[in-house]
Amino acid sequence: LTNDEAVARLRTLGQPATMFGETREDRIFRLKVATKNFAIVDETTTTATQVNEKLLDAEHVEAFARKKKEQSLKAKERSLKGVAGDGGAEVVDDDEPEVVEEKALMDAFAKAAQKLKKQREAEDKEPIDQVAAYFKSLVAEWEAELDAKSEEWCYTHEGRQSISTFRTLKQHLKPLFKRIKRRLLPGDVERALYLIMQAMKQRNYKKAADAYVGIAIGNAAWPIGVTMVGIHARSAREKIGASSQAHAMHDEETRKYLQSVKRLMTYAQRAYPTTPSLSLDFNSGVNGSDKAELLKAEARLG
């Protein structure tokens, strides 16, 4: 464990980074004590599942920060090799900025062409396979956006929350993709997911939210209070029976991947902004600023 990693973990736990006259061994020992006390305190006030989730979130942040550090080290090594390959001489090329800009532009065009090719191929697939392809593309875009962030951003409150949300979403969507591949999704869920995808592609996020609410809550009658108050049966009594199912979130796995779909809708609303009348909770600040992204998109269009 390096000194920087120990300092980062202490800050994550809300502990001072350095004490007066503290050595590296003292700092690591203090980190061990803080980690142990952190787990014990949580076990007395929260459930074991919540403690495990907090520890997993901390591990995800550390893994992400470690990945960013490795990427920066590799970039430095490549730059050093490039300087050494030139014989150590500092040669300034007037066309170098233009070459770099042209290369970046060509890379952007190549990525856009590849994305368009995948979209065209997905259009020929079955409707539920189109849903899986679209959701996977949004997950990949979100992951690329997080990879572009700096290492310092990982330890901010926004960074920790974003990384934790994305890791949870990615984990909870795996059962959905597995069910789609094996054709095990219920028909109503399959239809609802297709309607959600179509609305998201049209950037009508309010319509997508309506489809989500329709499958998550449903429109069946919910029994409120006493359903049998006399000796005579009420009209349409069978519609409010305890055995009738009013929503799709009857098991934990379905609830998790449907909530992850809702998080993808929130991300898509920021990544592909639209007018406030077609947005759900416009500029709520849950996943960035919708208004700022919309202004950027309008500026790009001129």
Write the SSE topology.
Layout: H1 3-12, H2 24-45, H3 48-85, H4 96-123, H5 127-147, H6 151-154, H7 157-182, H8 187-201, H9 205-216, H10 252-271, H11 290-301
Estimated radius of gyration: 25 Å
Count of DSSP-assigned helices: 11
CATH architectural group of the domain at 121-275 and 288-302:
Up-down Bundle
Oligomer: single chain
What is the CATH first-level class name of the domain at 121-275 and 288-302? Mainly Alpha
- Overall geometry comes to globular
CATH superfamily of the domain at 121-275 and 288-302: Functional domain of the splicing factor Prp18
As a percent range, the share of strand residues is under 5%
User: If you consult CATH, what is the topology of the domain at 121-275 and 288-302?
Assistant: RNA Binding Protein, Prp18, Chain A
Task: Please estimate the helix content.
Answer: 55-70%
Low-pLDDT stretches: 39-46, 88-94, 240-244
Largest sheet: none
InterPro entries: Prp18, PRP4-like, PRP4-like_sf, PRPF18
Domain Prp18: 133-274
Family: Belongs to the PRP18 family.
Protein name: Pre-mRNA-splicing factor 18
Short description:
It comes from Ostreococcus lucimarinus (strain CCE9901). This protein has 302 residues and is mainly alpha-helical. Helix content is 69%, strand content 0%.
